Input
Amino acid sequence: MIRILLRHPGTRRPVTLTALAAVCVLAVALLPVAVLFGGIGTLRPRGRGRLARFSVFLAVYLAAEVTGLVKAAWLWTVSFRRTARDDCRARYEDAHYALLDHLLGRLWAAARRCFGLRIRPPDQPTELPAGPLLVFSRHAGPGDSFLLVYALLEAARRRPRIVLKHTLALDPLIDVVISRTPNCFVGATEDERARVPERIAELAGSLKPGDALLLFPEGGNFTRARRSRLLERIRRRGRWSLLPAARSLEHVLPARSAGVFAAIDAAPPGTTAVFVAHTGLDRLESVRDVWQANPLDGPLELAWWTVPIEQVPHDAEGREEWLTAHWARIDDWIDRRSQPASSSCS
Output
């Protein structure tokens, strides 16, 4: 059923919009009760008010979803006759980026108040150059992709092009906004995944100075269980040459190079690769972890560094070593920040 919905937008959107309406009706009925009992729970010794916190955030999320869809419908209504022209199409896309920036800002403010979410950037952050960006980030923890998109929109003032899993199209607002801006969904089948590097190359080839292409080379959210399954799959397939490098990475999955180098090869001159490391949400690997960790005790830490794409090696072996070295640097950075927490708990 899910595959059918993902392949056919005409079928998917009525179903997901109906589901959203049902959730909103249910939320209106139950959220006041949840907030009341969650608030009473904070009066207990060591009470953290988790039920109230998650209830309020859910209310904000649903409100953002509904208002975003209404605004997107209005944008389509006033613009559908004019989007054939390039200048109008650009304004149409910019309007959706502005909408996304506004809605993510509301969710960011709600997450700060409800969960104590904070971001601590490096003491001496690397300045981002003016040209187009290829952003290669680790993927770990709930909501990290949304935070990175918001950072690109709000802090870096870039129009992000995102490579994301097709299952996220089951969210009606993501489905609508992604379809109206230059982005790429990654399908679940082998044939669909095989076409992704070509799609990435198309996105990278049309980058302009105010654009950024965001990729997660690991291909999925890092968890310890997923890392174990990956190592076992490498052993089972007898790919022993890959095992040492994969085993040496404790906090990230090995980067998949096809999409990375498709983007680098297609990007215009003057493009810069940006590697992003972060930690703080990566310990939240399950729903139980998310529930028990809130409100958060520490900040999300963030670091990045830049490499002009002209410095990327051209030979296949050199490229793989280049990517592996940068991915190992992310892993080392995370390891250095996890050690104090480990030692204090021992």
